[in-house]
Amino acid sequence: MNTSSTKLWVPGDWNAFFGFGTNLLVNILVLTGLLRYVLGMPDDLVFGRILPATGLMLMLSTGYYAWLALKLARETGRNDICALPSGIGVAHMFIVVFVIMMPIKAKTGDPVAAWEAGLAWVFIQSIILMLGGYIAPIIRRITPRAALLGTLAGVSITFISMRPSLEMYMTPVIGVLCFAIILISWFGNIRYPRNIPAGLVAIAVGTLIAWGSTLLGLDYGNMQIDKVTAALTNFGISIPLPAIDHVFSGFEYVGILLVTAIPFGIYDLVEAMDNVESAEAAGDHYPTHRVVSADGIVSMIGCLMGNPFINAVYIGHPGWKAMGGRIGYSAAAGVSMFILCSLGLASLMLAIIPVVAILPILLYIGMLIGAQAFQESPRSHAPAIMLAITPHLAAWAKTLVDGSLNAAGTSAAKINYESLTSAGVIYHGLEVLGGGAILTGLVWAAIAVYIIDRNLYRAAIFSFAGSILSFFGFMHNEAVGFAASPDVAFAYLIIAGLILWLAKTHHVTARNSNLVLQEETPHAAEL
């Protein structure tokens, strides 16, 4: 085995660096906007404390996964190993802002108290991840690939792909053109002059169009010189400082925190398993326990230094690998984000680059992951994948309904469910199906896969697990609690009993690693 030939950087890393780097940049810009404009946090807190800690976490995370990829490459003697992408958990970014920090800010009027509550929330989740690292490999071994990748496809279609798609078409001259630039290179494998990375070409073209239109009075991208000038005032060197006292001050709100920290800690656990499965489907095997535990440790370090956002392994490993990314792109992107955050450059980047020029990269990743669920699973499991996607569609639709009602100054509770149902919006159904979507999708898809494979005993086990998870609110509910969704839990229990009864009455036996019905089923194809 020749380990000396392992390269830390290959030409394809440039493509992955600009693609992954812009992905991280988008998230940095979004969270900066949330902190400043939604929570109204002062710039000295955002640029002096939070962003430097966030940059440190990103550098540690991406550096670790680059090292893990290097280790795997040397152990296997392969030169095509791609590092796992990682960064700020996107779903959690919005949860911690809108569900944790915003209510505390509204209650106290103190942005520091809101920040401290966010830190305590991440602290609790980090512990769940570190402990869960030992459980995750077991869960992964018994869960079908279609279930793991299917629920991931649901996330990619709804919460990753849809918003970029919609925003692209709000400014199509930039968004759609930049998307075409990326498609031509990353799907069509057509290189641009001098091998300039497609991600960089897309950003450059989008930025030129945006600023050019501003000069012509067309205003594509809403670019303004005044914003650039104002952004320069945030430039300066800020280093991460310990925030341990702020973390433990946030435990004053522990009752509010636990309601979401526990289910989202489990969400992180399942999401990490999904993404490790995605990487393995692309040919790179990483130890699940190391990945999950590392997310917890890195998140804990970031939290103790002042970062109120969780770290997560990202969806998208096959995408970066397909465009040539190997080891170096990951660490390079993390170092770049640390420099950007420590120098206060996020504000300047937000003022110079139109976000719509970056969004097509997220859509590309969403497309790739959605496709992978079908490409890397048996064809017979396709219905199970579709079933795994359904809860995410419900969760996404509910966010749109809630956002619309909030904008109108009302809510579903004020309007009442019957009125919404009569208008064609089955709101309570969206609540129940979309609550805990990632676990719901995984459990239902696993049940479906094992029914398709006639492995009825395992289908019953997952049905029983669905009953327990629903009873305590991890599925089909938005908060953990005792008897949170008793009706749904009872339904899963009945399903488990039905499947077990059918398994026994039809004399199920094991064959070829699957349990199949011994009696003939001549009409199965017709069904």
CA-based shape: globular
Residue ranges: pLDDT <50 for 5 or more in a row? 510-527
Output mean pLDDT. Answer: 85
Helix content: 55-70%
- Biggest sheet: strands, sense, closure? 2 strands, antiparallel
Number of helices: 23
Structural class: mainly alpha
Question: Total domains, how many?
Answer: 2
Percent of residues in β-strands:
under 5%
Secondary structure tally: strands: 4
| Radius of gyration, CA atoms, in whole angstroms | 24 Å
This entry's quaternary arrangement is single chain
- End-to-end Cα distance: 52 Å
What is the H/E string?
HHEHHHHHHHHHHEHHHHHHHHHHHEE
Major sheet: arrangement of strands: 1-2
Notes on the protein architecture:
The protein is mainly alpha-helical. The chain has two domains: 12-375, no CATH class; 379-516, no CATH class. The chain has 23 helices and four strands. The chain has helices at 12-38, 43-76, 90-108, 111-132, 136-142, 145-170, 172-186, 198-215, 225-231, 244-249, 254-281, 288-304, 317-322, 328-342, 346-352, 359-375, 382-407, 412-415, 417-422, 427-434, 437-452, 456-471, 486-505; strands spanning 86-88, 311-313, 509-511, 514-516. A two-stranded antiparallel ribbon has the order 1-2. Strands 3-4 form a two-stranded antiparallel sheet. Helix 1 (12-38) packs parallel to helix 14, helix 6 crosses helix 17 and helix 7 runs antiparallel to helix 8 (198-215). The chain is globular and about 75 Å long.
Index terms:
two-stranded antiparallel sheet; 4 strands; single chain; two-stranded antiparallel ribbon; globular; disordered C terminus; 527 residues; mainly alpha
